[in-house]
Amino acid sequence: DSGVTQTPKHLITATGQRVTLRCSPRSGDLSVYWYQQSLDQGLQFLIQYYNGEERAKGNILERFSAQQFPDLHSELNLSSLELGDSALYFCASSLTGTDSYEQYFGPGTRLTVT
Amino acid sequence: AQSVTQLDSQVPVFEEAPVELRCNYSSSVSVYLFWYVQYPNQGLQLLLKYLSGSTLVKGINGFEAEFNKSQTSFHLRKPSVHISDTAEYFCAARDFNDYKLSFGAGTTVTVRA
């Protein structure tokens, strides 16, 4: 158990809908990262937050957004969902940012868009 | 930015045999290197990491990896595998002063009795 929690574990929704994925980092970690794992694209970095502020952006679609709240939990919002958004979404956390080498991954949320 | 290439997508191996998973990276700057394991229906778990210093790093569950700067490689090895090592293995890299991990496509290891 990494200490990172993600909810829900599974999510099935229809095209065009909007969903919110939630992540609670390990106790004391200030940085949260979101990754998408799909069969065609593999594991890709989406976005990073550090202590409530966006720190880095990767291959994140404009239909996707994220935020980190004062209690350090983070939410990833996916809107206007398409079939191709079906994937496993991971959250990871680390103590700080560049000087924290290890990212601890949660169990993931499996999103199925039908 | 860097890219990570895992040279084998599938590696079948018999129990108690050795295994090597190959990983090459490309980067214009110095990098940190990692191997993660993903067991079925689970998240990613860190096996080992190379930050600096000794090029041979030891990790959990009897795994080790060797950093080779001239060949830009970071191959993972285990001298004797168990059935429980059946999983997907990911090589990842991170530039100094960067935040994101770049992952390889993964290598599925299937251990047979």
Structural class of chain A: mainly beta
Number of DSSP helical runs of chain A: 0
What string gives the helices and strands of chain B in order? EEEEEEEEEEEE
Distance between the termini of chain B: 41 Å
Largest interface, Cβ cutoff 8 Å: A-B, 25 and 22 residues
Kindly list the characteristics that best describe this protein:
heterodimer, A: 114 residues, mainly beta, four-stranded antiparallel beta sheet, 11 strands, B: 113 residues, six-stranded mixed beta sheet
Can you give a write-up of this model?
Chain A has no helices and 11 strands. Chain A is mostly beta strands and 114 residues long. In chain A, the strands form 2 sheets. In chain A, strands 2, 4, 5, 6, 9, 10 and 11 form a 7-stranded mixed beta sheet that branches. A 4-stranded antiparallel beta sheet of chain A has the order 1-3-8-7, with no helix packed on it. Chain A is globular. The mean pLDDT of chain A is 93. Chain B is an all-beta fold and 113 residues long. Chain B has no helices and 12 strands. The A-B interface holds A 2, 4, 31, 33, 35, 42-45, 48, 55-56, 58, 90, 92, 97-98, 101-108 and B 32, 36, 42-46, 49, 51, 90, 94, 96-106.
